[in-house]
């Protein structure tokens, strides 16, 4: 009997290997999701654009050079026409001009800082988007993995029941068991077959949703490897969500500097060189150049500077309020999640102890079944109890992994 049972298990394993076309792990789906995500591609392009914007802004500090050609003729016919004192009759100018803004080091640094903060904010937003995407992929992977484990176990139970059924059938023919006992046992097998089918269909749906989230079009039934999830360590100060508030605060403070810079005197050096003539006298000598200085000094603008600083001050206070609220909720969230993790660990210990008893009871009933002394109804009750415990263990394992996923979402920066 033992040799027959081991052969049967070997056949079941081979059949299971044929069911799954290949084996995939969690990293496979995460990599696919990141590659296919248009949101991550959008953020990456925005980061590159912010770098170009910074370079464009620096280009405005450099000397601006432009060429300009103008020619006009204002005829006077029979005494009618423009006043030649104003129009000169005709004029031609072909000039190359330049304009150089003179900025203080503080102004240049403040503007450069504003572009840096924009880029930093985009990088943080991209990291948060990656975390959100990874979290959804991991959560669905865990769900599909849990369903797969239940499916494999219930397939195994169904196969074992069919093995026991063939033995029971022989014993029933030998009048050791009643026909009603055999029919009750057979009905249990049919129920188990239905449950196994439903779990297979659920696994197909869970796997399809996982592929949908990764952006892949795939209906292949694959085996999922056990997800390697452990709680990651991190400090509150390095939290990526907290960095969002820190960046917003720096943006507001830098905005104050930009406001002050706008009220500083601005100086521009101007100049041109070329040909400029009205042809009234020795037009061939009208080649030359000119230089100049432009100065702008703000004096009074209706107290706008003070009002803008007040707005930024209130925005800074609001941001600080959100920061403190996040810190409180962050700590509370981790406390709740760690509590759930400890509870699921404690529940698993209890379920494992129940599983030992349930398996021992099943083994005892199997021996009684072979000798013809088993009560079929008691055997079925014991079997259902075993299945219920295994389902509870699988669900508790899924809950445990989902909790780890949640904890890592809030703690990890990667």
Q: What are the SSEs and their pairings?
A:
Elements: H1 2-19, E1 23-24, H2 26-36, H3 38-59, E2 64-73, H4 84-87, E3 90-102, H5 105-173, H6 179-214, E4 223-224, H7 240-262, E5 266-277, E6 287-296, H8 304-371, H9 376-411
Parallel strand pairs: 1-4
Antiparallel strand pairs: 2-3, 3-5, 5-6
Helix pairs in contact: 2-5, 2-6, 3-5, 5-6, 5-7, 5-9, 7-8, 8-9
Indicate the percent of residues in helices. 55-70%
Estimated radius of gyration: 40 Å
> How many β-strand stretches?
6
State the low-pLDDT regions, or none: 1-18
> Can you list the strand order of the major beta sheet?
2-3-5-6
Number of helices: 9
Average the pLDDT over all residues and give the rounded result: 85
Can you tell me the overall shape? elongated
Q: Explain this structure to me?
A:
The protein is α+β, with helices and mostly antiparallel strands. The chain has nine helices and six strands. The chain has helices spanning 2-19, 26-36, 38-59, 84-87, 105-173, 179-214, 240-262, 304-371, 376-411, and strands at 23-24, 64-73, 90-102, 223-224, 266-277, 287-296. The strands form two sheets. It has a four-stranded antiparallel beta sheet with strand order 2-3-5-6, with no helix packed on it. Strands 1-4 form a two-stranded parallel ribbon. The protein is elongated, with a radius of gyration of 40 Å. Residues 1-18 have low confidence and may be disordered.
């Amino acid at each position: 009997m033992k040799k027959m049972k081991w052969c049967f298990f070997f056949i079941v394993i081979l059949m299971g290997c044929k069911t799954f076309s290949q084996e995939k792990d969690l990293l496979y789906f995460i990599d696919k999701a990141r590659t296919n995500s248009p949101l991550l591609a959008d953020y990456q392009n925005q980061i590159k654009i912010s770098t170009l914007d910074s370079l464009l802004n620096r280009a405005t500090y450099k000397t601006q050079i432009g060429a300009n050609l103008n020619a006009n003729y204002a005829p006077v016919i029979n005494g009618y026409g423009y006043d030649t004192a104003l129009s000169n009759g005709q004029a031609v100018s072909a000039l190359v001009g330049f304009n150089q803004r003179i900025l203080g080091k503080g102004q240049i640094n403040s503007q450069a800082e504003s572009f840096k903060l924009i880029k930093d904010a985009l990088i943080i937003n991209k990291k948060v988007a990656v975390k959100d995407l990874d979290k959804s992929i991991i959560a669905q992977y865990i769900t599909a993995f849990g369903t797969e484990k239940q499916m494999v176990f219930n397939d195994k139970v169904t196969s074992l029941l069919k093995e026991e059924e063939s033995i029971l059938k022989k014993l029933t023919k030998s009048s050791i068991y009643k026909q009603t006992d055999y029919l009750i046992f057979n009905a249990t097998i049919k129920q188990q077959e239905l449950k196994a089918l439903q779990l297979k269909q659920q696994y197909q749906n869970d796997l399809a949703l996982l592929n949908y989230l990764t952006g892949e079009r795939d209906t292949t039934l694959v085996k999922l490897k056990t997800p390697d999830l452990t709680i990651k360590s991190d400090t509150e100060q390095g939290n990526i969500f907290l960095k969002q508030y820190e960046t917003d605060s720096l943006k507001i403070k830098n905005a104050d500097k930009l406001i002050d810079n706008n009220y500083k005197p601005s100086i521009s050096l101007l100049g041109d060189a070329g040909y400029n003539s009205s042809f009234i006298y020795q037009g061939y000598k009208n080649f030359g150049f000119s230089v100049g200085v432009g100065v702008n000094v703000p004096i009074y603008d209706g107290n706008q500077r003070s009002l803008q600083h007040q707005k930024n001050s209130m925005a800074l206070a609001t941001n600080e309020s959100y920061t403190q609220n996040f810190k409180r909720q962050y700590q509370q969230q981790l406390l709740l999640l760690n509590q759930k993790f400890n509870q699921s660990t404690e529940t698993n210990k209890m379920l494992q102890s129940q599983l030992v008893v349930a398996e021992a009871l099943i083994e005892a009933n199997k021996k009684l079944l072979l000798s013809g002394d088993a009560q079929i109804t008691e055997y079925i009750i014991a079997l259902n109890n075993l299945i219920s415990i295994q389902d509870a263990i699988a669900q508790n394992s899924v809950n445990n992994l989902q909790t780890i996923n949640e904890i890592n979402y809030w703690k990890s920066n990667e």
